[in-house]
Design brief:
CATH class of one domain: Alpha Beta
Bound molecules: S-adenosylmethionine
CATH topology of one domain: Rossmann fold
Strand content: 15-25%
Helix content: 25-40%
CATH superfamily of one domain: Vaccinia Virus protein VP39
Mean pLDDT: 87
Shape: globular
Length: about 400
Amino acid sequence: MILRVLGHLRRFIFDRQERLKWDLLLQQVREGWSGNEGFEGESHLEDFHHHELTDSGGDDGHFDLIETTVSHLFREPNDTLNGLTYGQLLLRQLRKRGWFTPKPRLIVEVGGGLGYLARELGKELLPFEKQSMRYISLDITKPFLDLQVSRAKAGGWSGIGACANGERLPFKDHSVDLVIDNENMADMTPVKLTRQELLEGIGDGPQHQEALDWIRRVRLPLGQDLPEDVIFNLGPFRFVAEVWRVLKPGGRAFLTEFGIEEGWPAPVKLPGHTEYEVQYSHLRQAVRWLGFQEHYLSLPQFLAIKPDTKVLCTGAAYTIQRFCQATNKPFTVRAYTEKELQQALGEMLSKLHGCHYHDVADPAWFGLLDFKVLLLEKPGGAPKASFSENKGYRWYSQK
Ligand SMILES: C[S@@+](CC[C@H](N)C(=O)[O-])C[C@H]1O[C@@H](n2cnc3c(N)ncnc32)[C@H](O)[C@@H]1O
């Protein structure tokens, strides 16, 4: 069997153009599953998650190849994150900001995918810390939700799931302490508005009117050269309004997704469905209008990732996975430093030529800098003790 694989591998003898070949391969892999044509808005994303994904629970395949996310690439401990997983590092960063003092009693994770984040957040907290906390996974896709609940249990949470749409949260007003939404807002309802609708403020149907009302309410600038039609992130607007409603005073939300800061959102075609960039200057205007205190930064900045750490090209990871499948060798698609790839492949690595590496922040790798973080805080919580930190010690003020 190994000889058969080596035969395959020999065909991959790389020369100066080796880098280009991996990238082309990745492109072909992606084009082979090209997304649907045209605008798939308004109800398609919900239908996709309700119906088309119903058989995809149970393994990593869907997230390895189709809806790959940053947290998925870093679901195992990784040298790039100082030996931590994405979830562990996320929890540490939130803890540093004081988000676990006092402890949130009720955490809701929206759109948890395969549940790795719930597991890893749980692992990072001590059992006694979790005793007084509840963690609810909320997702629109039932098979994913089942995995989320079982992985949350593996992370030491009691494991409760709610099958629902994040645009209509099934929680009472002022009942939640912390909302976590990781790479899900691009899946939420987009609306395509015409120039005429925007200029007249009259929408073609209730959803369009709802979008236009938001635009007017939060005073989004329409800009000078309005195109014939534009896409508006109605779903993310509804979502942040729901987050505002359900959070307790002093409650917080961590939201991250890829997006832009100028212009109007563009579609991102994926196999089976299309996602839409989040327009962050619009969304930030909405959260401020709602009353949130917000902090906005890029995901690598938030995680404090060293931008020049070298990681294996994702195209190479897909291809190696195919070779490994042929020999029944387990191999997961994730971010690999060279040392980690060596550990994963052992002997086989020396037979592979042309595995190339990118700086983790290089747009050619995964576009990490396009992923933004919105940290939201609803005012009105208990007054916080003020302190400054110096060499690991906290100095509390007497005031
Ligand atoms: C791209 S995946 C992200 C998964 C995971 N958070 C991660 O970072 O890997 C989007 C997730 O959100 C869920 N989802 C999509 N639209 C949703 C909505 N409107 N409400 C709740 N969940 C949604 C999907 O089922 C999926 O679990």
